[in-house]
Write a structure and sequence with these properties.
Elements: E1 5-7, E2 20-22, H1 26-40, E3 44-49, H2 54-64, E4 71-73, H3 83-89, E5 97-101, H4 110-117, E6 121-124, H5 138-146, E7 157-161, H6 167-173, E8 178-183, E9 190-197, E10 202-208, E11 211-217, H7 222-237, H8 242-249, E12 260-265, E13 274-280, H9 286-298, E14 308-313, H10 322-327, E15 340-344, H11 348-354, E16 360-364, H12 367-371, E17 383-387, H13 395-402, E18 406-408
Parallel strand pairs: 1-2, 3-5, 3-6, 4-5, 6-7, 7-8, 8-9, 13-17, 14-15, 14-17, 15-16
Antiparallel strand pairs: 9-10, 10-11, 12-13, 12-18
């Protein structure tokens, strides 16, 4: 339990000796605690923002730095006006590296959080359509993401995705800082040269300052490779050991809800018979769904007659473009390799109606409807992706499919 409580008034039903810190405003006091914790530490602070991949990148950094000192980061996705000061306030004085995830839903949220965290290095993973309800277009999102550089320390470094239409906006915002770019672009300071995906890993080759760098991640996906490269660029900028970080990064794997892959054995007598399940149910926007579809398209189903099956839930907070952004998924190149697409939610009905008949699976209003009959969605031998916005509760479907058998090691699986 808590050692003490930060409160704006003393409740009537607590003991007289309860450990209460009474303040005028709880959020303001929490922010002050966060600033005080930041001021007392000599830690190198790395801030992470972006439309996609913030939490995965934070966890990659935690893993990559684990052999180089005491690392502090939030256990969950604490990236808003409560989560950032809470993460800072919990930071031990003797921390060597701190990783602060910074998110937003509306304009003007990132800069104050960055000024509170005062990162030595700030990463922008990517800029993509997300939270469009609150922004006029992706350019406006880029400007908001770029405001993370307002909080950089005087000798701070910006780490920017080089492969975006909005990259010039990000670089311009980082003009007063050192700026390092990463990506597949020939102009990138840290260039992703080759990506090889296997069933449960991604092997990458990158180039930096004339040197070749090899690293591996514990999940398939080019988007993970990009995030891993951003991590290495940031660690280098923060003074970390690049070689050690690349070795430690191989121990990273995505957690449940964020691309975790598991094999569900449905025949107790034969561990080759089952369902290959990609659990990417935590959240969704067009960019993250695109990345997940690409991973699914490259995965070989475990059964000879197995299919690649996508179960997609609504992508929320996309504003006036929401219907079109859902329809456009039907034309994604990865759809050529996907056999069946099941859809969940009123917005995903737009995709369902746009799919060719041979790929059009079922449509339901809620995830609970599919969770009640998982065997109607998938068969033994299939590879299945579950993806949707958090409010769609797609984790219900993940759990229902997992209960069709038993999760076992899936190292026998293959990826083209």
């Amino acid at each position: 339990g808590a050692a003490a409580a930060l409160v704006s008034h003393r409740p009537d039903d607590v003991d007289d000796d309860a450990a209460l810190l009474v303040v005028d405003d709880v959020l303001t006091a929490l922010e002050d605690l966060g600033r005080a914790a930041r001021a007392r530490t000599q830690a190198k602070v790395i801030g992470v923002t972006g439309s996609v991949g913030k939490t995965s990148t934070k966890e990659m950094l935690r893993t990559a730095l684990s052999g180089q000192g005491k690392v502090h980061a939030a256990e969950k996705s604490f990236n808003n006006h409560w989560g950032v000061p809470l993460t800072l306030a919990r930071m031990p004085r003797e921390t060597d590296f701190a990783i602060i995830e910074i998110g937003m839903n509306h304009p003007g949220e990132i800069a104050p959080l960055s000024r509170m965290a005062r990162p030595d290095v700030a990463i922008i993973t990517t800029v993509a359509p997300a939270h469009l309800e609150a922004f006029s277009d992706v350019t406006a999102i880029a400007r908001e993401k770029a405001s993370v550089f307002e909080g950089l320390t005087s000798a701070g470094t910006a780490v920017v995705n080089a492969d975006l239409d909005e990259t010039p906006i990000l670089i311009d915002a980082a003009a007063r800082a050192g700026c390092r770019t990463f990506g597949a672009s020939e102009t990138a300071d840290w260039r992703l040269d080759e990506v090889i995906a296997t069933a449960d890993a991604t092997v990458c080759r990158a180039e930096h300052a004339g040197q070749t760098l090899l690293f591996k991640l514990g999940a398939p996906g080019r988007h993970f490779a990009m995030n891993g490269l951003a991590c290495l660029a940031a660690i280098n900028a923060a003074g970390g050991d690049l070689g050690l970080a690349a070795v430690e990064l191989s121990h990273w794997a995505p957690p449940a809800g964020r691309g975790q892959r598991q094999f569900i054995q449905v025949d107790a007598a034969d561990n080759r018979i089952g369902i290959d399940l990609f659990d990417d149910a935590y959240n969704a926007n067009p960019a993250s769904v695109s990345a997940a579809l690409e991973v699914l398209a490259q995965a070989d189903p475990p059964g000879l007659r197995g299919q690649r099956v996508a179960v997609l839930g609504d992508m929320k907070e996309l504003g006036a473009s929401e219907a079109d952004l859902h329809r456009q998924l039907a034309g994604h190149p990865a759809m050529e390799e996907i056999s069946v697409v099941h859809c969940v939610g009123p917005l995903m009905r737009h995709l369902h109606e746009s799919l060719p008949a041979e790929k059009r699976g079922s449509w339901v209003e809620t995830s609970a409807e599919f969770a009640a009959r998982p065997s109607s969605l998938v068969q033994s031998g299939d590879t299945v992706l579950i993806k949707g916005s958090l409010s769609m509760n797609m984790a219900l479907i993940v759990d229902a499919i997992a209960k069709l058998g038993q999760a076992v090691d899936n190292s026998h699986a293959e990826t083209r």
